[in-house]
Design a protein that fits this description.
CATH superfamily of the largest domain: Acetylglutamate kinase-like
Largest sheet: 8 strands, mixed
Strand order of the largest sheet: 3-9-2-1-12-16-17-15
CATH class of the largest domain: Alpha Beta
Number of helices: 10
CATH architecture of the largest domain: 3-Layer(aba) Sandwich
Order of helices and strands: EHHEHHEEEHEEEHEEEHEEEEHHEHE
Shape: globular
Structural class: alpha/beta
Low-confidence stretches: none
């Protein structure tokens, strides 16, 4: 079975953890161990991942230098994709059988130059702040900030992915037996002008939307989203919370899940199922193999 597995940002850096090399390495080891179980079960895996904390940190570091030298956000997207991809590739090589082919591929993703997201930023990046600190930084640095749970974070444009431009290369590598790490952080957003010239876009694409599109374009059998909760819940965090185990897109889409957490995952899963007739699943990283076997997580089916 060919699986596109998307690692959520919280699977790589748990909420509240410091963005230190040690914390990231510990979580990378945990992720690689869980993913190795899928490979051991005989599945072909294409791996994607989030980049919210990392790209935000890179942006902060860029602002600390001379203003004229600060790279654009699309370049930071590429930098974070290489950074996280390298860490994942290294640790997967440590836990998979010797000789397993693994490759990290920087992935360009086309977005529309007139996407309304460019005038309405919603994608959280970087560290969390209290409200007063966030608003002070916004005023000083020209940021847009918004609540993210009980904290506040910087938010940037998150245009919808239109096409995974490297999909054919990813598909060829996968068919050759390579575990490909790609579309990291939603990929690198690019736009095309009237003269058919490509340009980077100041944005961070939603990782789940881009991963679902990738899974559709390369013909994956199942689209798997791995995060820090074991299933999709109704009334999550209340005494009435109820885990959903097997559900259709029609039953999910009217439930109003939070835009900053489970909402994008549910939307991406439903879109993949509706467009392909195949399965999507959402659940905990540690349950990856059990989710694919239908024994854990939430399975979304046609």
């Amino acid at each position: 079975m060919h699986i596109v597995a998307a690692l959520g940002g919280n699977a790589l850096l748990r909420r509240g953890e410091p963005l230190t090399p040690a914390a990231q390495q510990q979580n990378i080891v945990r992720a690689a161990t869980a993913l190795a179980q899928l490979v051991a079960a005989g599945h072909h895996v294409t791996l994607t991942h989030g980049n919210g904390p990392q790209v935000g940190l890179l942006a902060l570091q860029a602002e600390a230098g001379p203003p004229a030298s600060a790279p654009a956000l699309d370049s930071l997207d590429a930098e974070s994709e290489g950074w996280i991809g390298y860490l994942l590739e290294q640790e997967l090589a440590n836990v998979l059988p010797p000789g397993t082919e693994i490759a990290t591929l920087l992935t360009r993703v086309e977005v529309a130059v007139n996407d309304p997201a460019f005038s309405h930023p919603t994608k959280p990046i970087g560290p969390v702040y209290d409200e007063a600190t966030a608003k002070t930084l916004a005023a000083a640095r020209g940021w847009t900030v918004a609540p993210d749970g009980k904290a506040w974070r910087r938010v940037v444009a998150s245009p919808a992915p239109m096409t995974i431009l490297n999909a054919a290369s990813i598909q060829r590598l996968t068919k050759a037996g390579t575990l490909v790490i790609c579309t990291g952080g939603g990929g690198i957003p690019v736009t095309r002008d009237a003269a058919d010239k490509w340009h980077g876009a100041e944005a961070v694409i939603d990782k789940d939307s881009a991963s679902a599109l990738l899974a559709e374009q390369i013909g994956a059998d199942i689209f798997l989203m791995l995060t820090d909760v074991d299933a999709v819940y109704l009334d999550y965090g209340t005494p009435r919370q109820t885990a959903l185990r097997k559900v259709t897109p029609a039953a999910l889409l009217g439930q109003g899940f939070a835009a900053g957490s489970m909402g994008p995952k549910v939307q991406a899963a439903c879109r993949f199922v509706q467009n392909t007739g195949k399965r999507a699943a959402i659940g905990a990283l540690s349950d990856a193999a059990a989710i694919v076997a239908g024994q854990a997580g939430t399975l979304i089916h046609a």
